[in-house]
Amino acid sequence: MNPRERLASALPKAELHLHLEGTLEPEMTFHLARKHGVKLRFPDAPALRRAYDFQDLQSFLDLYYEGAAVLRDREDFRLLTLAYLEKAARDGVWHVEPFFDPQTHTARGVELREVVEGIVAGLHEGEKKHGISWRLIPCFLRHLSEEDAIRTLGELLPFKQHFVAMGLDSSEKGNPPAKFKKVFAQVRAAGLKVVAHAGEEGPAEFIREALQELQAVRIDHGVRCVEDPDLVRDLAHQRVPLTTCPLSNVRLCVYKNLSEHPLKKLLDAGVNATANSDDPPYFGGYLLENWLGCLRALDLQKHHLVQLAKNSFEGSFLPEKEKMKWFEKIERVAAASA
Ligand code: ADE
Ligand code: ZN
Predict the structure, then answer these.
(1) Which of 56, 84, 221, 317 has minimal Cβ neighbours within 10 Å of its Cβ?
(2) Closest residue (by CA) to atom 7 of ligand 1?
(3) 52-83 per-position pLDDT tens digit
(4) pLDDT, tens only, 288-311
(5) How far, in Å, from the CA of 170 to the mean position of ligand 1?
(6) How far is the CA of 119 from the centre of ligand 2 (A)?
């Protein structure tokens, strides 16, 4: 590793865009399939990994939902969460705000309690073992109806103490944020914050809509804002966090390669952009691989790396005092590097 790569590795980082179901490594998929007697249509883990060849978001989601069918009980969710935190710790991640998709599991007859309590047990264990703090965010699936989301919110509220926000994910095309205006008003009334995937495959207009109609305080992906210079200026001015996922964007053909990714442009424009891993085994890398990929392809400089690290904590739901502590730590690590 060269000095900039070593700095990328050493800087404390927060991961703000990560789907727990999207951390299923093929080996764990097969382990859980054997445990539950689930028949998979692939002969083994390498064959499943070879199928990770996507044309767009939908072609990925089809395989991602199929894979999630092996998650059946609380122990599966605990194991999945803990395995992710092991990798996050290795990458210098000290705070995580992962997503999960309740409807993917309740639609298969898995009790929500099993899902939530398994994930929370894994998060507590990871916190004890690796010192990683966390906030948890359930997401509504936007290809389903708002009525389904409203029903799901009702099922989630008894577990509200575990959640900081509600998110919106799945197929963006044809499912604008405004479709979920009513349910997110209920989310806010329940005292939870709002985040939303917008501007991944959908247009820049969906970012504005998520901010205005849902009152989202953080935008997941958001990369298509670059098509609207006025929007970029507003995002920078208001310091709205964008949780970009560079390797994901390349694997889902939003960009041909990382050198086309707008991360550096967004940082230079003063936008609170971060780099995250989304669904790491599916897209070829965990958080540090996303950072290193961008560092190399976009020739990120030391100040970009320091800004990315600070943005990740600034954009988190940690209290201000905690954020300050991380900013100081980041400054100390940067000062110590060549
Ligand atoms: N669910 C998991 N990963 C996703 C992504 N990149 N976009 C939308 N929904 C998702
Ligand atoms: Zn995502």
Answers:
(1) 56
(2) 170
(3) 999 999 999 999 999 999 999 999 999 999 99
(4) 999 999 999 999 999 999 999 999
(5) 5
(6) 18
Indicate whether 325 belongs to any domain.
Answer: yes
pLDDT of residue 173: 97
What 8-state DSSP symbol labels residue 260? G
Give 147-159 pLDDT, tens digit per residue: 999 999 999 999 9
Q: Using alpha carbons only, give the angle 45, 79, 43 rounded to the nearest 5 degrees.
A: 15
Give the binding-site residues of ligand 1, using a 6 Å CB cut-off.
19, 22, 57, 64, 169-170, 197, 200, 248, 278-279
**Which pair of tokens denotes residue 23?**
């951390």
Instruction: Report how far ligand 1's centroid is from the alpha carbon of 172 (Å).
Output: 9
For the CA of 252, the nearest atom of ligand 1: 6
Domain membership of residue 97 as a residue range: 3-25+74-336
Question: Is residue 53 domain-resident?
Answer: no
CATH number for the domain spanning 316: value is: 3.20.20.140
- State percent of the chain over pLDDT 70: 100
Is residue 65 domain-resident?
no
User: Which amino acid residue places its CA nearest to atom 2 of ligand 1?
Assistant: 19
Atom in ligand 1 nearest the alpha carbon of residue 172? 8
Give the separation between CA 121 and CA 75, rounded to whole angstroms. Answer: 9
Which tokens hold the place of 162?
């575990």
Report the atom number in ligand 1 closest to the C-alpha of 22.
Answer: 2
pLDDT digits (tens, 9 = 90+) for 186-216: 999 999 999 999 999 999 999 999 999 999 9
41 sits in the region (left: phi over 0; alpha: psi -120 to 50; else beta) called alpha
pLDDT for 325: 98
Q: 201 an active-site residue?
A: no
pLDDT at 201: 97
The residue annotated as part of the active site, out of 25, 114, 200, 209, is 200
Asked whether residue 57 is domain-assigned, the answer is no
Distance CA 314, CA 323 (A): 6
Task: Compute the distance from residue 197 Cα to the ligand 2 centre, in Å.
Answer: 7
Burial of residue 337 (CB within 10 Å: 0-12, 13-18, 19+) is: middle
Q: Could you tell me which residues come within 8 angstroms of residue 68 by beta carbon, excluding any fewer than 6 positions away?
A: 21, 24, 101, 104, 105
pTM: 0.98
